[in-house]
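Review form for a predicted model. The reviewer records the input and the model, then writes brief findings.
Reviewer: anonymous (R2)
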Amino acid sequence: MIGNLPYHRVNVLTGTRAARTIADASEYAHLIKSAGRPLLVVGPGALTGTLNGKPVIEYALEIAGILDIPVCATAHTRKKLAELGLDPASSYDIMEIINHLKDPAWPGTRKEGNHDLVIFIGIRTDLAGQALSTLKHYARHLQTMTLNKYYFPNASYSLPNMKDGTWKVFIDTLITNLKEKAG
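Model under review:
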């Protein structure tokens, strides 16, 4: 049986470390809750993607809000985040935030130290693949996680490839688990 295949099958795995595939939302919630300084990076795919009519960006905001996770707005997401009542902790081009994250001495978005877990949602798959590869090789001080419905072999933790219905159930269950763990 073939394991998970990434959406883009170019440069699928560089190095010897591959993402740990996790399909259990409670395990994802535990990893997020255990992080000391997580960061949620929101890309433009969160603006256009929907799950049963609800924009993906609203799920991202709910996840960030539960644990007070700082949000980094990329591309043109800052305006929509502001309309939804969130002032992002930072707004960077995806390559710019990746370059900052590579630096262990970077003070982070809240000036509390670099982040130890970076969660990506809504980033274009080709950019995310390259960004995750860069962080895997040049930012060994942090872990990466994706909340996109595709498998990313260069992340530390990735969802398997999912259809929209399965992805929605996962995100809803993740939010429920984060609420339970936050209380």
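Findings: The domain at 20-182 is CATH 3.40.50.1220 (Rossmann fold).
Further findings: The chain is about 40% helix and 15% strand.
Recommendation: see findings above.
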